[in-house]
Amino acid sequence: MEKRITQRIKAILFITLAYLVAGCSSPTLPPAKLHQSNTVDVDSYKYLIGAGDVLNIFVWRNPEVSGTFIVRPDGMITTSLVEDIPVSGKTPTELARSIEEILATYLREPVVTVTVNNFVGPFSEQIRIIGEAAQPQAINYTQHMTLLDVMIRVGGLTEFANGNGAVLVRIENGQQKQYDIFIEDLLKNGEISANVDVLPGDIIVIPETWF
Question: Residue ranges of the SLBB domain (predicted)?
Fold first, then answer.
């Protein structure tokens, strides 16, 4: 109980300080733009390359232009023949075809294969869990991932979480939608009907309970 009271006092002090700072600061910045994932349902998922991914690019019969490349923060790679090839947001197959078109300027009928290591992907493809999760974080989406899978990855709820007051934020047709989810029913009461599919780009917000 003392721990909980202490946390509330800290929260009140933080909010008070925020208001004081806001009163003497410049105008607030516009909200961040949430980018919609290309995945609109659980059966249409395809992995998209993102910054930080490690790509193995094999060009058949041309080992001198094959190699391993790290996707830069700007979403591009540089090869021995071509600088600044945009790769972020493409599937490995799409990238292979793009590289074939580029290399056709230098090589005769190039055949390219692209594989991915160290999967990171674009931010628009990650699932973000904030609030009263035991380990709030951004996680990489895996095909057919559900709410239960996500909660296992983040270690469940904290003792102060209002799991049944949680919401899932998703961008659909360019519009931000918000859905109620019932994490406490799922984890503590074993109500499997509360388990739902999640999609790349989803944001799960878990509030604190006040009683």
Answer: 127-206
Q: How far is CA 167 from CA 19, 148, 179, in A?
A: 26, 14, 5
Distance CA 165, CA 46 (A): 31
Among positive and negative, which fits the CA dihedral 78, 79, 85, 86? negative
Q: What is the mean pLDDT of each run of 10 residues along the chain (211 residues)?
A: 54 51 69 85 94 97 96 95 94 98 95 95 94 97 97 97 98 94 97 97 96 67
Q: DSSP string spanning 139-198?
A: EE--TT-BHHHHHHHTTSB-TTB-GGG-EEEEEETTEEEEEE--HHHHHHS--GGG--B-
Amino acid at 86: P
Q: How far apart are CA 195 and CA 187, in angstroms?
A: 9
**Beta strand ranges found along 6-136 (DSSP E):** 54-59, 67-70, 76-77, 85-86, 112-117, 126-131
**pLDDT given for residue 128 in this prediction:** 97
Q: Are 127 and 114 in contact (CB under 8 A)?
A: no
What radius of gyration do the chain's Cα atoms show?
22
Q: Domains in the chain, ordered, with CATH?
A: 30-34+123-206 (3.10.560.10), 54-117 (3.30.1950.10)
- Cα separation, 112 vs 67, in Å, equals 11
Give the span between the Cα atoms of 72 and 79, in whole angstroms: 12
Confidence (pTM): 0.81
